[in-house]
Amino acid sequence: MAKPIITNTPAENLINGQEVFSFxxxxxxxxxxxxxxxxxxxxxxxxxxxxxKKNMVSGFARPADYLNPHPYxxxxxxxxxxxxxxxKFTLNGKQYQLPVNNGSNHLHGGxxxxxxxxxxxxQIISSEDAAGVAFTYTSADMEEGYPGTMEVTVxxxxxxxxxxxxxxxxxxxxxxxxxxxxxxxxxxxGFSDDTIDEHLLKINAGNYTKKNEHNVPSGEIAPVENTPxxxxxxxxxxxxxxxxxxxxxxxxxxxxxxxxxxxxxxxELQEPxxxxxxxxxxxxxxxxxxxxxxxxxxxxxxxxVPYRQHGAVALETQNxxxxxxxxxxxxxxxxxxxxxxxxxxxxxxxM
Length: 351
Known about the structure:
There is one protein chain. It contains no helices and 30 strands. By secondary structure, the chain is mostly beta strands. It has a single domain (5-350), classed as Beta-galactosidase, Chain A, domain 5 (Distorted Sandwich), CATH 2.70.98. It is globular and about 60 Å long.
C-alpha cells in the first residue's frame, strides 16, 4: 500500500473573516476530502470489487456549499450530539437550559453548533503510515447554553490500511457535558442506488435505548430480539424499515457490546452489488443508526442525484442520547483536569 499523502487548496472564501480550506488525503486506494468549516468530511472515494471508485458519502463539491441548509452532512456535531430532553440538564445542582431546535428537544449542539463553526488548522500530519489534519475549536463559556470554556481537537487520519481514523479530544475549565460524533451519511453504491434498502447491516448490540413519545430515551435499556432493531447478524436495512412508522425508518441508539472501553469492531455495512464493505470500530458505548428518514429529494449533492428518503445511513458513534438526564447511562460529564478522548475508525474494503 502506498504512503498516504495530503494536499490542500488555497482559502476558498471567508466566513466571518475566517479562512476556509479543504484538504485531500489519499493512498493508492482511497481518497478523502474534508474542510475546516464544520470539521466536515466532504467525500470518501473508494473502489468497488472491480476497482471502480465512487464517492460513498453525501455532501457538496465546495466548502461554501455547506453554508446552505442541509441535514448535518459529514460534519462534527457538538457539544452534545443527539438529543437532550427539553434542552435541560442539571450539573452540580444547577439546571441549564439549552436551545430547543428539534421539537421539544435540543439536538446536535443547538442552533449554531460545532457543525457551523470555522475550525482552526492545528497541524497537517504526514508520515510513512498516515496523513491528515488536526482541527481545533475553542467553545466559549455558555456558548449555546453550555457551561465552561472547552478546547476541542478533532483529527482525521488516513492510513495505509484503508482506515480513516477520527480522534476526538477535549478539555474544559469547569464541569460541563460532552458527546462528539461525525455525521457522515453512507451509501456504498456511490448513490447509484438511490436508497440503502439493499445494504446489509450488522451491529454488535443486543440492546438499544428505548424511546418515549418525545423521541428521547425513556431510560429503559431494551433487547433488540424480536424487534426491527435486531441487526446481530447481517440483515437488509430495508427488511423492516417500514415497520418504524413514527420515525419513518431507523433513528435509534444501539448499546454496544464493548464495555471495556477498548476500540473494537461494532458495525459492518455492506453493499452486495459493488462489494464495498465499511467496518466501524470505536471505543464509544453507543451508535445511532439513522436512515435519512426526512430526506425528500430537495437537495442534490455532489453525485448529481437528489438525496431522497432512505438514500443513505449515518452510523454515529457516541454516548447515549440524553445521557446527562439518566443515571444508568454512561457518564457524559467532563471536569477540569480530565481529557475527553474517543476514537472511531472507518475501515474500507471490497469483496
